[in-house]
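In the current project phase, the collection of sequences with tokenised folds has grown. A representative record is quoted in full directly below:
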Amino acid sequence: MAEVVTEFGSSPARRAILVGFINLRSRLRTLGVIIQRQWLDGSFIEAIEASEGRPPGDIDVMSFIWRPAAAKSDADFHALVRANLDVFHAPQAKAAFRCDHYLQDLDIGIDIDSICYWHAVFSHRRNGVWKGFVQILDEGEQADQVLLGQILAQGIA
């Protein structure tokens, strides 16, 4: 995650998006969700300022997660999701955290079709041109809070 902050936190607008992303990760952990890994994509990962003359508006995030211990059943997990739509529902997560956030629930198994779909979405631009995306592992709340302090010290938009 530190490399993401260093590489992509080059402006106050970008750092504001990173603050939202770190806060999203914190909320997931607070709910007991275990973040196995995350894919990051979108204009935030591209040099959108150079190619389109504008800052990124958000960051696209695919979280591969394990359900909280208290919400392993489908009924309990769906109740958790419904009670926390600002984290689990992409439009609300975008408004709350500046993250276009999607999930892959690892407790239901690996859905190869879903992973193939999201890999294709994250590895191509809208015009079909290939591009990359960033994968990060979760280093924990303490590491994220250190990075959050560094980001805030630099200033955000």
User: Anything to note?
Assistant: Residues 12-30 form the longest helix (19 residues). The beta strands are 34-41, 59-66, 99-105, 134-136. The mean pLDDT is 93. Residues 2-154 form one domain.
